[in-house]
Amino acid sequence: SKQTKRKGLPLPPGPRPLPLLGNAHQINTSQPWLTYAAWGKQYGGIVYSRLLGQDYIIINDENIVKTLLDQRGAIYSDRPVIATYMNKMCGIDFNTSFLPYGDLWRAHRKIFHQTLREDKAALYHDLYLRKAHDFVQNLINFPGDLETHAETLTASLIMAVTYGYETQIRDDPFVNRVQGLVDIVLQTITPALSALLTGLPFFERLPEWFPGAAFKRRSRLCRDLSAEVVERPFQYVIEQMAKEIAPQSMVSDFHRNAIAKGEGDQDRVLKEVAATVYVGGFKTTSSNLHSFLLAMVLYPEVQQRAQAEIDAVIGDDRLPNFDDRAALPYVEAICREVLRWSPAAPLSVPHATSNDDTFNGYYIPKGATVILNAWGIAHNEAVYPDPFHFKPERHFTADGQLKDDSLSNNLFFGSGRRICPGRFFAERSMWAAIVSVLSSIRIEKARGPDGKEIEVRPDFTTGMVIYPKPFQCSVTSRSATKEKLLRGKVTA
Ligand code: HEM
């Protein structure tokens, strides 16, 4: 056919006809990355499939990810048209993540680069630690609500770094508004839309997906909420700046510079970028923290080894800080293993080609959705033996050195020009939370009334972003001194 013969080259191999919908039993509908990984084994590192007239290229190999998404960034940096459409439907047109590859997207990335690149993300070290200490105290006081604590930590970090705004522990007006918007977005990103984004359904049968009355109501609510999410916190910073009491933040930083350079007209883009931080950073970061807690419950020997490392370096009379980071390689390996063991975005965020291309003798059509199967790569036993086992040791060389890799330069933050611009901030806030938890508390399986341990299974939700299903655990303080130190740092 015309499709397969263009340039005389075949499309990459893949299942034909696609065993889809009619043959739903052949695919795993709740974890499409499993199906993609199986296709990877059968057809190779690059696979072609087609759904509802759309071309999908699925990549199951890290080297191919680098070659295409990274080295051929000029072709592989667009987003699928359906993603842009989804932004509109959810009332979040401001969202950088789904903007088409073009000038507006470039203006967004420029602001991210100026405010959250590595040296800028490092300006907030005290903040990451202070919020991490609040997190540990919440875990000690209310161990039954891990997910809420992970989300509270993430929300308060995001609001502080973006706007210099200190959130209230409960019912914060800004957080509630953004949370409302995130909830609507999650409701709107139905399984059907996810299917179009990722090429495989997250559902058994094709449901109704076209906008009905409920959807129209929702989208009006979305637009109102969205306008507030973009405007209100920004105005807050401008007011704080006028009173000269605005702390360091992404918005105050950029705004001050822009005014100094006579570029005050960048405000609209700045507002949109700031509002995007929540959309991009909230569920992903809290998912990783939640997975870390789950791993610690399931792998007590890993927890003990990390605690021994921390105790040897830090002792009992202070808490860890960023100066200790290089001396704690095992903690570093735990952070890497969290990202690998349970990638928060198992299929990353889909890219799209803005031109035809050829690769290894295959034809890659323009407009194809390109999927990075992050979960599949992370669980390829040829690269990561015993892939379901949480094993920080795998990040060390045979002679005991931490492998030459950095946490932020990691496939699980995506690849190429669209790579996650929040990775330096995410990486540092994750490290601060993980090292603070390990140094101050012990997390274990909870015990039932019969005194027996309550079993915990590593079960995860499904969707574009995944996180552990609720599990029980017990939390105990490791040291009275550290508990006091934690409290000493807490803001009223
Ligand atoms: C551990 C936490 C996080 C993980 C695992 C993560 C992961 C990702 C991934 C996989 C992508 C897609 C990259 C690609 O298309 O190749 C992405 C994009 C993005 N992330 Fe993150 N992210 C995290 C935290 C954050 C934070 C804290 C922010 C905000 C500061 C953020 C903002 C964004 C934005 C704006 C994009 C879209 C970039 C674009 O389309 O150009 N992320 N992230």
List the helices and strands and how they pair.
Blueprint: H1 2-5, H2 32-43, E1 46-51, E2 54-59, H3 62-70, H4 81-89, H5 103-116, H6 118-121, H7 125-141, H8 146-163, H9 173-188, H10 191-198, H11 213-242, H12 250-260, H13 267-298, H14 300-314, H15 329-341, E3 351-352, E4 357-359, E5 362-364, E6 369-372, H16 374-378, H17 423-440, E7 441-444, E8 474-477, H18 480-489
Parallel strand pairs: 2-6
Antiparallel strand pairs: 1-2, 3-6, 4-5, 7-8
Helix pairs in contact: 5-12, 5-13, 7-8, 7-17, 7-18, 8-13, 9-11, 11-13, 12-13, 13-15, 13-17
The protein binds protoporphyrin IX containing FE.
Protein name: Cytochrome P450
Organism: Hygrophoropsis aurantiaca
Structure description:
The protein is α+β, with helices and mostly antiparallel strands. It is built from 18 helices and eight strands. The strands form three sheets. The protein has a four-stranded mixed beta sheet with strand order 1-2-6-3. A two-stranded antiparallel sheet has the order 4-5. It starts with a helix and ends with a helix.
List the bound ligands: protoporphyrin IX containing FE
Distance between the termini: 69 Å
Overall geometry: globular
Cross-sheet strand order for the largest sheet: 1-2-6-3
Average pLDDT rating: 88
Low-confidence stretches: 203-211
Query: How many runs of DSSP E, i.e. beta strands?
Result: 8
The secondary-structure class comes to alpha+beta
The helix/strand series, from N terminus to C terminus, equals HHEEHHHHHHHHHHHHHEEEEHHEEH
The largest pleated sheet is described as: 4 strands, mixed
